[in-house]
Specification:
This protein is an all-alpha fold. Helix content is about 75%, strand content about 0%. Helix 1 packs across helix 4 and helix 2 crosses helix 4.
């Protein structure tokens, strides 16, 4: 689980850096395309709900640190 969360933080950070949104807490609507991205998640056993849960926690933590 720790490796999965690390991967998700890295993928989220990379995704946000291209959008120029680092430090902004993202909403469910903004995270949905990320968690539905088959190019990322087809290689892992991660369900949409798991991605959303972890991603929303990560984006909150990133926003707190910025």
């Amino acid at each position: 689980m720790k490796h999965l969360l690390t991967l998700m933080v890295f993928a989220l950070w990379a995704n946000l850096s291209y959008a120029g949104e680092i430090g902004k807490e993202l909403t469910k609507e903004e995270m949905t395309p990320f968690c539905q991205n088959k190019m990322i998640w087809d290689n892992f056993d991660v369900k949409f709900e798991q991605c959303m849960s972890a991603s929303l926690k990560c984006t909150k933590e990133i926003a707190k640190k910025s």
